[in-house]
Design brief:
The structure is a single chain. This protein is an alpha+beta fold. It folds into 2 domains: about 130 residues, Winged helix-like DNA-binding domain superfamily/Winged helix DNA-binding domain (Arc Repressor Mutant, subunit A, Orthogonal Bundle); about 50 residues, no CATH class. The chain has 6 helices and 7 strands, in the order E-E-E-E-E-H-H-H-E-E-H-H-H. The N and C termini lie far apart (about 50 Å). The relative contact order is 0.11.
């Protein structure tokens, strides 16, 4: 599996200047950088990916409040949810991604291990990091939904505690859901299409 890495500056939302801290290929780069990892259109199972799939954008902010390993984990989960990394697709090797991002090997390893613990990634010595499941893989593993519901309640409580109106919270949730690639049957059930009269 071959990967191409392109580095592009990632402007901060606040407009504040970005510090120069990371290095890539000997050149100093902004500490908040978008890393575009392009996967050749072939998965480990030999399936050819449709156009646009297998490309993952990792926006990592090295001096941000969220730990880098968590950012790696979050961006990969988002790529899986959007359909960009289907089940069976390979991710870059831990060491290669660490070098490409300019971070410690253990940082990437921790992000990948979180994904493994959550059942989204399979890590093997020969096969490397492979996406284990996606939105079309069926129901989640037992016990996962209960833990997720607890995390969701906490996120919603944070928004409410900050004074965000319920309509805004619901709107943000709907916008996020619209960005994900659900299987057709699940989307139809969610919209009430195909249900008995």
């Amino acid at each position: 599996m071959e990967w191409t890495v392109k580095l592009r500056p990632c402007p901060r939302a606040s407009g504040q200047p970005v510090g120069m801290s990371a290095r890539a290929g000997g050149e100093a780069i902004d500490s908040a950088v978008e890393f575009v990892l392009e996967l050749l259109p072939q998965t480990l199972s030999g399936r050819v990916l449709p156009a646009g799939r297998g490309v993952m954008l990792l926006s990592i902010e090295s001096d941000g409040p969220v730990p880098i390993y968590q950012q790696i984990r979050d961006r990969i989960v988002e790529a899986i949810a959007r359909g960009g990394q289907p089940a069976g697709s390979a991710l870059p090797p831990i060491r290669q991604l660490a070098v490409d991002l300019g971070v410690n090997f253990h940082t990437v390893n921790k992000g990948y291990d979180l994904l493994r613990q959550e059942g989204l990634l399979r890590l093997g010595r020969k096969s490397g990091a492979v996406v284990r499941r996606d939105a079309s893989s069926g129901p989640p593993d037992p016990g996962w939904a209960r833990d997720w519901t607890g995390r969701l309640r906490t996120l919603l409580a944070e928004a409410a505690a900050q004074g965000m109106p319920a309509t805004d919270i619901a709107g943000e949730c709907e916008a996020a859901l619209a960005d994900f690639a659900f299987p057709a049957a699940a989307a139809e059930a969610r919209n009430g299409i195909g249900s008995p009269p």
